Amino acid sequence: MAIIKELTSRSENYAQWYNDLVLKANLAENSAVRGCMVIKPYGYAIWEKIQRQLDDMFKETGHVNAYFPLFIPKSFLSKEADHVEGFAKECAVVTHYRLKNDPDGKGVTVDPEARLEEELIVRPTSETIIWNTYRGWIQSYRDLPVLVNQWANVVRWEMRTRLFLRTAEFLWQEGHTAHATREEAIEETRKMLDVYAEFAEQYMAVPVLKGVKTASERFAGALDTFCIEALMQDGKSLQAGTSHFLGQNFARAFDVQFLDKEGRRDYVWSTSWGVSTRLMGALIMAHSDDNGLVLPPKLAPYQVVIVPIYKNDEQFAAINEQILKVIKDLKNLNISVKYDESKNKKPGWKFVEYELKGVPVRLAMGGRDLENHTIEAARRDTLTKETVDLDNIAPYVKHLLDDIQRNIYQKAMDFRTAQTFTVETYDEFKKRIEDGGFILAHWDGMPETEKQIKEETKATIRCIPFDGDKTPGKCMITGKQSAQRVVFARAY
Amino acid sequence: MAIIKELTSRSENYAQWYNDLVLKANLAENSAVRGCMVIKPYGYAIWEKIQRQLDDMFKETGHVNAYFPLFIPKSFLSKEADHVEGFAKECAVVTHYRLKNDPDGKGVTVDPEARLEEELIVRPTSETIIWNTYRGWIQSYRDLPVLVNQWANVVRWEMRTRLFLRTAEFLWQEGHTAHATREEAIEETRKMLDVYAEFAEQYMAVPVLKGVKTASERFAGALDTFCIEALMQDGKSLQAGTSHFLGQNFARAFDVQFLDKEGRRDYVWSTSWGVSTRLMGALIMAHSDDNGLVLPPKLAPYQVVIVPIYKNDEQFAAINEQILKVIKDLKNLNISVKYDESKNKKPGWKFVEYELKGVPVRLAMGGRDLENHTIEAARRDTLTKETVDLDNIAPYVKHLLDDIQRNIYQKAMDFRTAQTFTVETYDEFKKRIEDGGFILAHWDGMPETEKQIKEETKATIRCIPFDGDKTPGKCMITGKQSAQRVVFARAY
Questions:
Q1: How many CB atoms lie within 10 A of CB B16?
Q2: Buried b or exposed e, range B104-131, using 16+ CB within 10 angstroms
Q3: Which CATH architecture does the domain made up of A2-69+127-287 adopt?
Q4: Which site among A260, A442, B55, B420 is 20 to 30 Å from B237 CA-CA?
Q5: Nearest-CA distance from A113 to chain B in Å?
Q6: Which pLDDT does position B89 carry in this prediction?
């Protein structure tokens, strides 16, 4: 029975392992629409936990939610010169607003008379429509700052898609803030990057590098893009969140000016920042193993699953009575529990299933446990088991969940430490990059050098890190001056 | 200062009053995209409360959330014969997936080479894409029921739009469930209607009539549509939620079959149910007055606003000290509070502002209150004030909020009772309908009679009510047999 759930192993084919896992753990699947996924209930339950926690953190930092239109007039995209280059290419274009019955009598066809005067683009990101709106909201410094976030779906037409990691439609949040000064906008950009990093590390249990993107990797329309980068088990980097300092670019493009305290008129300063369902990909890849998902307790749809093991109805009744007490105790400690007492599936099948689904703790109680007044507790991260006194199980589980959260973070951190390399020469770099990992090397700051490295090695500069060694040196390719080492990796 | 916020009165022009209120209370505004609105932070905060509460109620009744694609292949819409008639007409059609730089060198233009083989429709509702997906999820009775809900945006191209009430894009939830038997599907349809009714009455404080739609008002593709109808202050009815029994229509259209316990193959039974940002319109119109919004405490973004009134910094310091204690006490009782201590606005301006925004309770503290150890409490629904001992203010407010929630429901209920009329003849009906309200009358069950009434009076049958008088009678037009009175009204 376990066989139908078997995954391709990571060592055999990492990409296939990932895809198998997403499908078999019932997280998501491809839909009938090219590049668009269906997020299934178990996957969506994780996304809801992510959303709820991030939303709380946004609100704690003074932000409010709003909602802006799905559609963007085509002309808006052209208003900011860099933005149009980055976003106005692969996108879904609405040209008509009506269908009519097919003259052949079968199905429906687009009504050629219902052509829009100006085409509408399904938002790939919302800077343009939002800044067009902010023009009406902001007149004076008293109207600032505007600290707005939106939870929404966006569409970017992608040729090669992968569930969660790269899909034509995805779900995300996009913060769009407006400020009276450059300094305040930069501070906001950094603050939100810190929120993302804290979320990734404390909730997803994924360690991240914080840094700034090079010019060529910047968001289209930004003066600076800050990012968090996470290392996956295959040694590739995943950009998990970005926060952009947009300067006055969008305010200029949409003519959003304000009167400052001294009565001078100036353009508004802005930021935008976002994370998406791509985080699901990072969460899945960072911790999971060949048996399935490994979820951090803080984001697991249920933290504990309980399976009864019995020979007959009488024994089930006795075990059930004990388990119901355990559930009550766990719930009193705010621990979420699934009790799987379904009779048409064997305990062994259930064990495999909940391992696949990454439930952090599994409790099982059989006849001997009943006699001994014990219960078996298995942890998903290490796959180890322990027999625990029934009277002590709730605090034991509470402690275990904390320990699992800490342990999977530490494991990911240890992996990253082991897979981070400092190299001095380009030869060394080219050898090293084949095995993946983060590579710290000196770079002369020139886009041409960056481009050469990318073309020759498929590695990109993931970020110029904020923390760590700031010693200057010489570029590994040109020998020119380098202000500090930057982080290279192959990336998702 | 109050003048800039002044609303058109309801008696002068009800439609204008509504529009003024939505704009001036910062709930929503029109966007640059025809028919699409921007939901502003204060409006969105109310919608978030609505969402959170409904989502809790859906989960309590066993439902889980998922997410399905924004786009629907054009051919899907034609698969269910009635559905295509109802939905495949006024909708946004995506025909291309790429823009390119305009040959004129200015802006971007649609790339004619990037035409989709099959056009994609922006979902007007998701039955088709969801049932196409369910084919892969359901094989056996063991896979049933499927109890899934989706929070999403949908688009229906509307020629005449009104903020919240009718917009091209709107936000909603759509439940889509699959069942092994007709009975279970009908039970689900009724259960979700009851959830909607409970939400409307207990949270929105809006009394609703529950009933079934006539064939001509049914959802396209349903065998039965149940609805809740609410009476607005202008005497028009607003359909606030619908729950559809879809029979096996979509299962047939998308070939979703299952093996039952006896090993027989049959099509799956289904339901769908939804409420949308239209509820915001109902909430606004049901309770508000010529001074602005009146919000039920259970859905108000903040339930209490506190305004200090002082002559100098010293007095402010003393008042502020007292108010901070009050805030602490209120928060301990889970009451949400906004403290407006902004110095650039006068208390009088604030009073008008928070009345406009419908904050249920306003507390104000001035020099005399400070001396007397009191605080002034004003309730938004009745606009009455009382001076309360400071030591007693938190429980006083708690009780007041409960009372306001009850009172605005009762007020709306009394209004509906007074505006519900039983008529016997069509002459009486035609006179009565001019003044609005619910009219209970006998109807012969024929679509032609219904159509005649609609054409001659603009009134429609809102529902055949579940509760109330079930006495048979004679149709007011044809004199033919009528099983029970039905509810007529003009409607939004």
A1: 13
A2: eeeebbbbeebebeebbbbbbbbbbbbb
A3: 2-Layer Sandwich (3.30)
A4: B55
A5: 12
A6: 80
Contacts of B319 (CB under 8 A, 6+ apart): B308, B309, B310, B365, B366, B367, B369, B370
* Angstrom distance (rounded) from CA B401 to CA B295: 11
Q: Cβ contacts (< 8 Å) between B142 and chain A: which residues?
A: 344
Beta strands of B123-277 (E only): which ranges?
146-155, 169-179, 209-212, 224-231, 237-247, 257-259, 265-267, 269-276
CB A75 to CB B171 under 8 A? no
B148 in contact with chain A, both atoms CB, cutoff 8 A: yes
Q: Does A258 touch chain B (CB under 8 A)?
A: no
Where do the CATH 3.40.50.800 domains begin and end in chain B? 297-415
B479: alpha, beta or left, given left = phi > 0 and alpha = psi -120 to 50?
left
Q: Side chain identity at B332, as an amino acid letter? A: N
Q: Could you write out the DSSP letters of every residue in B398-460?
A: HHHHHHHHHHHHHHHHHHHHHTEEE--SHHHHHHHHTT-SEEEEE--S-HHHHHHHHHHHS-E
Residue A359's pLDDT band (cuts 50, 70, 90): very high
Q: Three-state DSSP class for A259?
A: strand
Predicted pLDDT of residue A158? 87
What pLDDT digit, counting tens, does each position of B121-142 carry? 999 999 999 999 999 999 999 9
The H or E element that residue A60 is part of is helix A41-60
Query: What is the reported pLDDT for A489?
Result: 98
Closest among A258, A37, A58, A311 to A144, alpha carbons compared: A258
CA–CA separation, B291 vs B282, rounded Å? 17
- Report yes or no: B36 at the A interface, CB cutoff 8 Å: yes
Q: What's the pTM?
A: 0.96
Question: CA nearest A112 in B: which residue?
Answer: B93
Of the candidates A45, A74, A96, the beta carbon closest to that of B108 is on A74
Q: Which CATH class is domain B420-489?
A: alpha beta
Predicted confidence (pLDDT) per residue in B95-122, tens digit: 999 998 887 777 889 999 999 999 999 9
Location of each CATH 3.30.930.10 domain in chain A: 2-69+127-287
At B128-181, the pLDDT tens digits run 999 999 999 999 999 999 999 999 999 999 888 999 999 999 999 999 999 999
Which neighbouring-strand residues pair with A5?
none
Is A133's CB within 8 Å of B31's CB? Answer: yes
Q: In the Cβ-directed half-sphere of B233, how many Cα atoms lie within 13 Å? A: 22
- Tell me how close the Cα of A339 comes to any Cα of chain B, in angstroms: 15
Q: What percent of chain A has pLDDT over 90?
A: 92
Q: Are B71 and A77 a contacting pair at CB < 8 A?
A: no
CATH 3.30.930.10 placement within chain B: 26-70+130-287
Per-residue pLDDT reduced to its tens digit, B409-463: 999 999 999 999 999 999 999 999 999 999 999 999 999 999 999 999 999 999 9
Note whether B167 and B158 are within 8 A (CB).
Answer: yes
* Homologous superfamily of the B297-415 domain (CATH): Anticodon-binding domain (3.40.50.800)
Q: Find tokens 């054009």 and name the residue.
A: B74
| Residue A2, pLDDT score | 39
CB atoms within 10 A of CB A84: 21
Which alpha helices (DSSP H) does B244-312 contain, by range? 249-253, 278-287
**Most A-contacting residue of B30, B31, B256 (CB-CB within 10 A), to test interface:** B31
Residue at token pair 């056009």? B119
For domain B26-70+130-287, the CATH class is alpha beta
Domain boundaries for CATH 3.30.110.30 within chain B = 420-489
Q: How far is CA B120 from CA A243, A383, B66, B111, B172, in A?
A: 32, 46, 21, 17, 21
Work out the pLDDT band at B344, boundaries 50, 70, 90.
confident
Is B81 an 8 Å CB contact of chain A?
no
> Which of B44, B75, B92 is closest, CB to CB, to A67?
B44
